[in-house]
Amino acid sequence: MPFRGAFTYNDVMNMPDAQSVKSIRDYQKKVDIHSVMNIQFTSGTTGFPKAIPRTHFQTVNNSYFVGKRMMLNEKHHIFCWQVPNFHAFGLIVGTAGWHNGSTIVYPSIHYSPEKSLESINKERCTTLLGTPTMYVDLIREQSTRNEDISPDFALTGGAIASPQLVKDMQSVLNVKTVQSLYGLTESLAAFFSLPGESPSEVYTTVGHIVEHTEAKVVDSNKKTVDFGVPGELCLKGAAILDGYLGDDKKNEESFDEEGWFYTGDQFVMFENGYGNIVGRIKDMIIRGGENIYPKEIEDFLRSHPNILEVHVVGIPHKRLGEEVCACIETKDGSTISTEEVKIFCDKKLAYFKIPTMVRTMKDFPKTTSGKIQKYKLVEQVVREMNNNIV
To answer: Could you tell me which residue ranges the AMP-binding enzyme C-terminal domain spans (predicted)?
Structure first.
């Protein structure tokens, strides 16, 4: 069949001949639902990616419940697909789309905000899918082009989205509803927005715990904390990984004797089943004995009228242990000074959380799935300091 740029459902169904269909059906009878269907790799935002075998059962069931949360079964949707299918985010939501017969639009071979915005407009996409960084890029592009778009909803996941970013998605991209997804390659979708959420639940949480998943939050002694108290998120359930491939040491570190998986995320659980990320435990900055989570500072700085994107990291310091550094991309491309950031934060953030170093960035180091690699940011800033670049 000659390539026409798009295939209908009937095109795909008519591709195999009778013998091919018989072979597939024969093989289906031999497939164990708990056998491995693919191997997912973590994004490598903090170091070398880890391999996670995924079974048919885990993938199909998790994506089924994601589709229900997105109400994909209630009407036909047209997705603007910005995330790669090799990533767990794309795999699970993609399978949810296929479950429900949605139209999937791939704007480009590699991620391109220009091509994405063009596709949203041309194909009249009703649903957007992307990481927070991708939405930052889309917002920048739409602010310039002002295309006539009005998607029904946008799903953000793969990293933490700030309340300001959600508001910008609604105002600049003209998205009617924003939904949040929290999950890891290790857990697939663990928290997901519910239909009809209040604005406060959209802005301040990562969604409601999904079906067939258990969650608890523990302190440093692995004791469960009260609702509303931050601690490390632990997960158990049908979609949680069975273990890292060929990494016994990491498996021992990540699971306890009851089978709980320790995510490494500092998290708050609420009594109504919603939750929110405080930050990655590994990203925590310890400055002069004070524990600082970058997300709080990032969320606040994104409310600055000329800050488009910001990522806060800890830079080694001889006396304090670590110093707070804000890496910032401005909306107009100008340089923002440390003094301007300090004045903006004064009396609004605790003094020890106010960045004492600011770097203006043109772009950020990212993984192939669009996540920011903070350890590379640290390396870059340290390298500049060693070369006396200020």
So the answer is: 296-371
SS3 at position 122? helix
Q: For the domain that residue 31 is a member of, what is the CATH number?
A: 3.40.50.980
Is residue 208 a contact partner of residue 85, using CB atoms and an 8 Å limit? no
| One domain for residues 170 and 291 | no
- For residue 224, tell me if it sits in a domain: no
Residue with tokens 């949480």: 205
Instruction: Please indicate, yes or no, if residue 227 is contained in any of the structural domains.
Output: no
292 shares a domain with 202: no
- Supply the pTM of this predicted model: 0.77
Residue 265 to residue 280: CA distance in whole angstroms? 5
The answer to whether the CB of 92 falls within 8 A of the CB of 58 is no
Tens of each residue's pLDDT in the chain, 390 residues: 444 556 776 787 788 888 888 998 898 888 899 999 989 887 655 556 789 999 999 999 999 999 999 999 999 999 999 888 878 888 888 889 888 989 999 998 888 999 999 999 999 999 999 888 889 899 999 999 999 999 998 998 877 778 888 999 999 999 999 998 999 889 999 999 998 888 888 888 999 999 999 999 999 899 999 999 999 999 999 999 999 999 999 999 999 999 999 998 889 999 999 999 888 778 888 888 788 888 889 999 999 999 999 999 999 988 888 999 999 999 988 999 999 999 999 999 999 999 999 999 988 888 776 778 888 889 899 998 887 644
The answer on 184 and 38 residing in a single domain is yes
